[in-house]
Amino acid sequence: MTTLFANPTSPFVRVVRMALHEKGLAGTVETRFVDAWADDPAFLDANPAGRVPAFVTADGARLTEAMLILRHLETLRPEPPLFGDDAALSRAGLAVGVFDAAVAVIIGRKSNPDFDTHLVGRKRHRTMHDGLARLDAALPDGQGGALDLAGIAAITALDYLVFRFPGEDWRGIAPRLAAFRDAHADRPSVVETVPRG
C-alpha cells in the first residue's frame, strides 16, 4: 500500500489529502501522522529533509513536496483534473503563497519570539494579508463543481489562517472566499482534513 507521511496541521499535507479525496484515492493510501520535528527513522527514510508531506508509492518510490505529489496523483487518476487553465493556476499560486507565508511565521516564531516584528516576519504578514485579498478578488463566480487545485489551495489557505491566527478577521478580508469555503463545507475532502492540533 502507498503511504503518506503527514501532519494534521500542515497546509501542504492538506492539499494532498484533499486531492486524494477528490480523486477517489483516499482509501488506497495509508496516512501516517508524524511529528516532523521528531526525526522518526521511517519518515526520514521517506524524506531526508524531514518535511511533510512525504509519499511512498506501492513500488517504493519516495516523492516529496506537495506539488510533485499532486502531479503524481494526476497521472494515477486524471479525472477529475487538479490542474486547470492559467487563471486557475494563478489562483492556486496565490493561495499557496498565503499559506507558505503563514507556515514561515509559525516556524520563525520557534527560533525567534520577535519574528513577527522583524523584516522577514513583516513581509510574511504582508503576503498573508495582500495575497488573501488578491485571491478573494480573483475567485470566479459560482460555488459548485469538483474542487481543483485552485479551490483546494484556496480553502486550505483560509482555514490555515483562521486556525493559526485566530485573532484576525480573515473571513472579513476574503468574503467571497469565505462563501466559497462555506459552499463546500460538507464535502468529505474538507471535513476530514480540517487542521487540528
From TrEMBL:
GO MF terms held by the record: transferase activity
Domain GST N-terminal: residue ranges: 1-81
Domain of life: Bacteria
A UniProt-annotated Pfam family: GST_N_2
InterPro entries named in the record: Glutathione-S-Trfase_C_sf (IPR036282), Glutathione_S-Trfase_N (IPR004045), GST_Omega/HSP26 (IPR050983), Thioredoxin-like_sf (IPR036249)
Gene Ontology CC entries for this record: cytoplasm
Alphabetized UniProt keyword annotations: Transferase
Signal peptide residue numbers: none
PANTHER family noted in UniProt: GLUTATHIONE S-TRANSFERASE OMEGA, PTHR43968
Name the record gives this protein: Glutathione S-transferase family protein
